[in-house]
Structure formats: C-alpha cells, structure tokens
Amino acid sequence: MNISKNDQRVLHVLALGGEIQYRRENGKIHKVICYTNDGLVLSNCTLDSFKRLKSKKLISSKKGQPYRITRLGANSVRSQMFQRY
C-alpha cells in the first residue's frame, strides 16, 4: 500500500500509543490534533492526511473516542529504528 512519508510518521506515533483528537462542526470533522504517547502535539497530522488514513481504514474511532491505529494500519506501517526495542 502506498503511504506518504507524513502519513507514515502519523502512523508511527499512533503505533506507539498516540491518538488523534478531533473537533466537529455541523456534523463534520473540521480540526484534528495528533498527540504522541508523551502528550506532545505532532504537527505533521493535517486534515488531509487524516482523511487519507481514514479512507484507507488505517485509523478508526469507536463510540466517539479519539482515533487510533487499526490492525491493518499497524501491519502497513514500516518499522523504524526507534520502534525496535
């Protein structure tokens, strides 16, 4: 599956325990913020990258909770050195 570098970075953060919080306006998501496991904000996560990841079903939300990585997303992400403990 083709995933851009910025989308890969977002998936890496989500794989390590991060989450994407969102704001709705008139029923549609208009703002997303990606938090790392440490509580820092990832600036690479934009609304466009969020829509791409969601359309490929690499992230999902359950019962109004923040978006997290799916099993397909975890299998799609390429491993990096900081993930190999």
From TrEMBL:
InterPro entries, per database record: YjhX_toxin
Pfam families reported in the protein's UniProt record: YjhX_toxin
NCBIfam families reported in the protein's UniProt record: PRK13687.1 (NF010240)
Protein name: Uncharacterized protein
Organism listed in the record: Thalassomonas actiniarum
